[in-house]
Specification:
One of its GO terms (molecular function) is NAD binding. Keywords: NAD, Oxidoreductase. This is Hydroxyacid dehydrogenase. By secondary structure, this protein is of the alpha/beta class. It contains twelve helices and twelve strands. The chain has a seven-stranded parallel sheet with strand order 8-7-6-9-10-11-12, with helices on both faces. It has a five-stranded parallel sheet with strand order 2-1-3-4-5, sandwiched between helices. Strand 3, helix 2 and strand 4 form a beta-alpha-beta unit. The structure holds nicotinamide-adenine-dinucleotide (NAD). Nicotinamide-adenine-dinucleotide (NAD) binds next to helix 4 and helix 6.
């Protein structure tokens, strides 16, 4: 099948070509799919977008007009696809249902430990010959309470790691997981979880009902000085409210791999550019905030699985086989 791989980086090409074995005609472009570029779908029955591509109703109508019938997303999340329009236009949407939950869980832990032990500041200090420890005081993770907001595949993988470190675990999820309960995760209300946790880590998908789940009211419910980690989707947090909570010194530390307006910023080099998003730039000024550019998924194992699943999705579609990655099948 002829498939256009949009927002393709050199690493996407390397992993997809290795998984493809010449089965499908893969054409790569580093351009993101959006209203200005949608006409590039001409001649491609399949498009393979990433999380920074725009797949709103308008773009979907244009690509459908150009003959696109299949979207094979290189992501688990599909909040960026206007599913109602895809259905109306007869566009099949497939995703990578699961790829290494460990990659994201381990990255969430990396953010927690970096913020707690101030590794980002220690790295710079030592390079400048400053070996003072003032300001680098951390806390033992052992015995601390971590609240997992969302205990699906990633939340459960993180629960296993934190259980091994001797943390007390609280969970909030519409469907509690028996694996988490066996690890001693105690399910509770979001309010209680926020009030008791030294660290809160978000692992819910972004749906209309979870948009700005963490708003000013929820932030005020957090234990004073607690740490907030988001490796899920930026839209879960009201960023302006978060900045107020940081300025008020209510939230102690924040690790963000995702940002609600990241589509115009992430996965590109802006070093000779001016980033005009003042909210994003304000986040970068806090010494107790770490921002990374949506890299939690980025391990060799995860990239191999994303590539293999994407090729399998293309093949199954061509051969008329449905599979568990069909987004409508959820
Ligand atoms: P999952 O589907 O296994 O788990 C999600 C959990 O959220 C489920 O247990 C579900 O019951 C719960 N849930 C959904 N809506 C809810 C609601 N309104 N209230 C309470 N609970 C609700 O998903 P996962 O594989 O663990 O991934 C979680 C999210 O992580 C994805 O949706 C994606 O947005 C994000 N993600 C980020 C990266 C990254 O690189 N930063 C990579 C992969 C996934």
């Amino acid at each position: 099948m002829r498939c256009l791989i949009t927002s393709a980086r050199p690493y996407d090409r390397a992993f997809l070509d290795a998984a493809n074995h010449g089965r499908h005609e893969l054409v790569y472009t580093d351009s993101a799919l959006n209203i200005r570029t949608a006409a590039m779908a001409q001649g491609f029955p399949a498009i393979c977008p990433f999380v920074d591509d725009t797949l709103d109703a308008e773009v979907l109508r244009i690509v459908a007009k150009h003959g696109t019938r299949l979207l094979v997303l290189r992501s688990t999340g599909f909040n960026h696809v206007h599913l109602a329009t895809a259905r109306e236009l007869g566009i099949t949407v497939m995703r990578v249902r699961e790829y290494s939950p460990y990659a994201i869980a381990e990255f969430a832990l990396a953010l927690m430990l970096t913020l707690n032990r101030q590794l980002h500041r220690a790295y710079n200090r030592v390079r400048e010959g400053n070996f003072l420890l003032d300001g680098l005081l951390g806390f033992d993770m052992h015995g601390k309470t971590v609240g997992l907001v969302g205990t699906g595949k990633i939340g459960t993988a993180l629960a296993r790691i934190l259980h091994g470190m001797g943390c007390n675990l609280l969970g909030y999820d519409a469907q509690p997981s028996s694996a988490c309960q066996e690890l001693g995760v105690r399910y509770t209300t979001l309010e209680e979880l926020l009030g008791q946790s030294h660290i809160v880590s978000l692992h819910l998908p972004l749906f209309p009902e979870t948009q700005h789940l963490i708003d000013s009211e929820r932030l005020a419910q957090m234990r004073p000085g607690a740490m907030l980690i988001n490796t899920s989707r930026g839209g879960l947090i009201d960023t302006k409210a978060l900045i107020d909570a940081l300025k008020g010194r209510h939230v102690g530390a924040v690790g963000l791999d995702v940002y609600e307006e990241e589509a115009d910023i992430y996965f590109r080099d802006h070093c000779d550019d001016i980033v005009c998003d003042d909210t994003f730039e304000r986040l970068l000024t806090f010494p107790n905030v770490i921002v990374t550019g949506h890299q939690a998924f980025f391990t060799r194992e995860a990239m191999e699985t994303i590539a293999e699943t994407t090729i399998k999705n293309l093949t199954d579609y061509c051969e008329g086989r449905g599979n568990e990655n069909l987004v409508d099948a959820i």
